Amino acid sequence: MGLLERLKEDILIGDGAAGTLLYSYGIDRCFDQLNLTHPDEVLRIHQAYIEAGADLIQTNTYGANYLKLSRYGLEDEVTKINRAAVRLAKQAVTDETYILGTIGGIHGTGPHFEVTEEITRSFREQLYALLLEGVDGLILETYYDLEELTTVLKIARDESDLPIVANVTMHEPGVLQNGIALADALKQLDDLGADVVGINCRLGPYHMVHALESVPLSKTAYLAAYPNASLPEFEDGKFTYKTEPAYFTDFVRRFRDQGVRLIGGCCGTTPDHIKALANGKKGLQPLREKQVPTQKRIVVKEKNQKQEQSLYEKVQTKHSIIVELDTPKHLDTKPFFKGAQALKDAGIDALTLADNSLATPRICNTTMASLVKREIGLNSLVHITCRDRNLIGLQSHLMGLHTLGIRDILAITGDPTKIGDFPGATSVYDATSFELIKLIKQSNEGISFSGKSLRQKTNFHVAAAFNPNVRNLGKSVERMEKKVSYGADYFLTQPIFSREKIIEVGEATKHLNAPIYIGIMPLVSARNAEFLHNEVPGIKLPDEIRSRMAKTEGNPQQAKQEGLAIAKELIDTALDYFKGFYLITPFIQYELSVELATYIQQKIENIHRKQILHEKKTGRNII
Fold first, then answer.
1. In this structure, what are the phi and psi dihedrals at residue 449, rounded to the nearest 5 degrees?
2. Are 198 and 165 in contact (CB under 8 A)?
């Protein structure tokens, strides 16, 4: 009898975790490779699950695709590993046991990513190997990203008529990480041709049952549940799961009451857990009808903060000046606040506060932004790097920024720790700057990184970084376009020291709707110029500028004046192309930024006067 025929009349028991058992044996490497190097261990696991009562087993191929195997230098072994896995499973099964070829998610948990051609090619290679060796069906499991799963499901459905199990994974019961409800996600998989749809991993049986309460029965697809044994504990350098197998026995009826026809185990489960499931199944018949209670909707409140104009809104309609003022590396904040006050008096629109630039610890920029707003009345553009916080920290940080009323954020990857004061520190990089932009915009919809409701929409405008100091400007512009597609509202550039480069950037980006704040940084000495040119990533100075600064060697005052003169020349050029000016203050010498801000404002006033005179004479606007 075929698998789907059995499911029509019965509740079936799947197997449990293979990796958990292999890990418990002291094996902590590529589990898929063991199909070749330790086949007896893999076979023993299959046999143990069948003896425990499993009606179907999965091949040991969860990560046996090109991209994951390449981490171990095994990318050329995809076909060999997958075919060996099926052969081992065939040695273990009886006439009444089914084999599902396992294809796991590539990216696992984390921000949404693009499903590239490389990813689809990797899936196809693994799929063909499993199909050629002959399996009774396929199981697509542990997919946090619904787009990835739907892509793989389409490929599998086009290539095979075999039964397909498609399991999503949730951070929070009842909702995927992109905020889509579980019931809606499973309906999509059903519509795409999955024969069994369900959930696996991350959650234990209690929360899985709770999540399934919102899922109606389908006329075309059965339900599956593969819970974890429990939440893991970390003991003596290893992850362990403490749930007693008997606990699983009690949950078989609860899963059945939600309409589940296929019940197995995921992380932490062992043959004892599967035996408990098999015992709990005895005498149970499948559920034929189910009443889904009306789900209580969580109301997501609209943005309720004072609607001051954000920098993004300002720079769309008029010239805008922001100034980067580094927070201190020590606890003496007086010079910083003195500088912030002077810049406020000079009429700038906001400070921009870096997030431990050059991987050097400074006073928290969020703290300083809050104090500057409260004590001086000046807004700040707060930078967030992906380097220092994992997804938990990033989520918490964004919630805090929203609560403080900070609306403008610059999302950047961040300089690696190796270049800073703590070269041995860990760079986190759970997300790229692209992904962080998307996650921030997701929070603007009231959805957290894990998919659950924030109960209020944030109202961030997201700036992104743009480095024009490269040989191939077209490539950098392409990255800008990609960041816009991810949700970037406007851009800040690295400091530019060439009038020709400013013109080139203006021409290359004029098709973009996203405003640009052009980076201007006054040089203060010849040594400063050489350091920036030779040692700071993303900054290059023309030979002519370096030569001008070199002539001021030994004369600090002359060097500053020359640096200001160069900056003003750059501003004059930039005024023809950009409305946004991003002044970078060197070494807390805020008086230089004050002078440049005043200069920009005077130039803008002159432009406006000319415009008014022209309008009076001709009745036409020249801008």
1. -60, -35
2. yes
What are residue 190's phi and psi, to 5 degrees? -60, -50
The third-level CATH classification (topology) of the domain covering 318-618 is: TIM Barrel (3.20.20)
- Closest C-alpha among 414, 412, 413, 410 to residue 460: 410
- Is residue 594 within 8 A of residue 343, CB to CB? The reply is yes
pLDDT for the residue 29: 75
What are the residue ranges of helices labelled H in 318-356? 334-345
Provide the pLDDT for residue 116. Answer: 79
Q: What is the helix (H) or strand (E) element at residue 544, kind and residue range?
A: helix 543-550
Tens digit of pLDDT for each residue in 522-544?
Answer: 999 999 999 999 988 788 899 99
Contact 336, 325 (CB under 8 A): yes
Identity at 206, one-letter amino acid code: Y
DSSP character string of 579-598: SEEEEE-GGG-HHHHHHHHH
Rounded Cα distance between 143 and 145, Å, is: 5
Structure token pair of residue 428: 């986190």
Correct CATH for 3-281 of 3.30.450.20, 3.40.50.300, 3.30.70.260, 3.20.20.330: 3.20.20.330
Of the two residues 90 and 28, the one the predictor is more confident about is: 90
Type of residue at 207: H
CA separation, residue 432 to residues 12, 71, 340 (Å): 42, 19, 31
In the chain, CATH 3.20.20.330 sits at 3-281
Can you give the pTM of this predicted structure? 0.77
Place of tokens 């975790």: 17
Instruction: Judge whether 38 and 88 are in contact, CB under 8 Å.
Output: no
Ramachandran area for residue 193 (φ above 0: left; ψ -120 to 50: alpha; else beta): left
Tokens of 269: 């489960």
| Torsion sign across C-alpha atoms 469, 474, 477, 478 | negative
- Residue 497 CB burial class (10 angstroms; 0-12, 13-18, ≥19): buried
Other CB atoms within a 10 A radius of the CB of residue 619 amount to 7
**Type and span of the H or E element at 153:** helix 146-159
Whose CA is closest to 187, among 210, 227, 162, 215?
Answer: 215
Whole-angstrom distance, CA of residue 208 vs CA of residue 419: 45
How many residues make up the chain in this entry? 623
Q: How many beta carbons lie within 10 A of that of residue 500, not counting itself?
A: 10
Compute the distance between CA of residue 129 and CA of residue 80 in angstroms, rounded to an integer. Answer: 8
User: What count of other Cβ atoms lies within 10 Å of the Cβ of residue 370?
Assistant: 18
Give tens-digit pLDDT for 473-498.
999 999 999 999 999 999 999 999 99
CATH 3.20.20.220: which residues of the chain? Answer: 318-618
Q: Are strands 56-58 and 98-104 parallel, antiparallel or unpaired?
A: parallel
Residue 217 identity:
L
- Residue 593 has which token pair? 């930024």
Helices and strands, counts by H and E, the chain: 23, 18
C-alpha to C-alpha distance for 594 and 599, rounded to whole angstroms: 9
Residue 233 backbone dihedrals phi, psi, to 5 degrees = -110, 155
Dump strand ranges (E) for 333-379.
Answer: 350-353
Angle 597-599-603 from CA coordinates, rounded to 5°: 120
Element (H, E) at 491: strand 490-495
496: left (phi over 0), alpha (psi -120 to 50) or beta: beta
For residues 145 and 65, give the distance between their C-alpha atoms in angstroms, rounded to a whole number. Answer: 17
